[in-house]
Design brief:
heterodimer; A: mainly alpha; about 85% helix; B: about 400 residues; 2 domains; 25-stranded parallel beta sheet; 13-stranded parallel beta sheet; 4 helices; 38 strands
Chain lengths: ~260, ~400
Amino acid sequence: MIKIVKYILLDILRNKIVLAYTLFLLAISFTVFSLEDSVQKGLLSLLNLILFIVPLVSIIFSTIYIYNSSEFIELLLSQPIKRRSIWLSLFIGLASALSISFLIGAGIPVMLYCTSATGLMMVLMGVLISIIFVSIAMLATVKTRDKAKGIGIAIMLWLYFSLVFDGLVLFLLFQFADYPLEKPMIAITALNPLDLGRIMILLKMDVSALMGYTGAIFKDFFGTQKGFVVSIFIMLLWICLPLFYSLRKFNRKDL
Amino acid sequence: MKAIILILCSCFCLSAIAQCTTIHVGKLQAVSTITDGVMKAGNNDTIIVEQGTYHEKNLVIAKPVVLLGINHPVLDGEHKYEPVSIKADGVVFDGFKVCNSAISSIVDYGGIKIYNRRYVTISNNILEDCFFGIYSQNCLGCIIKGNKLIARQAQEQQSGNGIHCWKCDSMQIIANTITGHRDGIYFEFVTNSIIWRNISTKNMRYGLHFMFSNSDTYAANVFENNGAGVAVMFSHHVKMFHNYFKENWGDAAYGILLKEISDSYIDGNKFEKNTSGIFIEGASRIEMYNNSFKDNGWGLKIQASCMDIVLKNNNFIGNTFDVGTNGSLVLNTFTHNYWDKYEGYDLNRNKTGDVPYRPVSMFSMVVEKNPPAMILFRSLITVLMDKSEKVIPSLTPENLRDDHPLMKPLQL
């Protein structure tokens, strides 16, 4: 299995897209920190990067990579190797490549300019979000055989998590404005890893505003040690569940 | 002849001085209790109290005397009595440690209480675990200076105010430190007074509570981490200069809450890390110059019920929302402020931006209407909404804008 992971990692590095992604992240992070007059504003721009570009690149790159290596997968399957280890090594290869490039691309500038709790939380959330979207991409690819359709699904999923979901939440909030929605809102955020990551970062960044009445409820939940552990656990679930389902599907798939 | 008059005069003077005696009170002195000392003393005498603990029950000072404590002698109220009651004009009470006053919900027991008197000075005392700290009712021209007040009650009902002034005039509250009381400093019906260089932190309710008190000034005070910040209500001609409002957190906590205030000045203050820097309601004719709003949730919450409020030359840096409001009516003026969120340009190089800045964001209006929406803050959809709102304002008040936003922050 380690051999396959090594091979996949080398293959990903050789195809240079991940390298370009790393350089792109590095360039953006450095510009953002040196252009803005305060570190806080730099972090804010970086937050948009994490919520927008990181999931997009993760999901699209992983989808395309898996479709392109379908022949390689078939070749491996003809060898006496378990399907499980092939699929997991694919995941590990993709997830580690993308997290490493995020760590280099955004982690290094954050460490250089702003080694605060906010910065560290941002790097942690960025890595988790990268991995989560690799896992979601694997579920999307295993569902359909058609490459165009698969990539379409991946884009739709990204759009859903980054835009449509929040729109729905806003709609619900105004439809049910007469009801106390603070606590259900905490549960609803668990349904979107991007929201969860964003709130974890906000608790470090906009703590003054979040201490308002409803904010205090979020702070009481997410801001505590227990809330932090629960949030990380939910994000890990977001990695494991799609991966687990895709693995089950892959095991039974007729290739 | 002249020489004889001079000698006679100096004799008179000397005898006048000699009439004021100094009485020493202490364990090893002839007089061992302060009550005895006060009884033996004549008007304008000095009583020097040596170190030690004194159980005087309720010490009543009904003569104009000077009481000086050496190394903070302790006056213990044993949770049953009011330790010190001052019932004479011109008393000086300096350098004591007063602790454990009685607690009651019927009588306002103070650590040191001044009853209807003039020109009393309370200075350099330490007050620990008193119900009310220094209480003055119906007083004139008193000085409360350099005292340190600490209370440790857990409940608001069990605790009184640190420095409490009711129906007073020309008071000077200077350089006191107040912690753990209900309100740090409380003013009701107090006029022409000054609150200067005090530090009021971690009080249960307000750092400073100000009601029906006109023509007062508070300057260079620090209000930090109080339950609900500072409240200034129903007063006019109040001047607030160079105060520091910091870390007042909670939905009902404000750096300053201004309610029904008119003809006042807010100048050179610093608001840092509060949920709301200033909350203004029903106020009119207030001038706010040279204030700095930094890292607050809301820099300024200004309700539509305010009018003729002028904000000029203020810095707004790192606030989550610069300005929040609840309606579309704007009768106030915003001009020449620095806003770090301003994205305009300055083509004619006059140091002010060429396009107006609208400090109220769409999302702050959404949160005002529907507080749980805060959970969507900084998500992609709200960023898009804010951007589109900037191009075509629909929800945000059109007239709430700074026509001359500064390009560089002011040195404040």
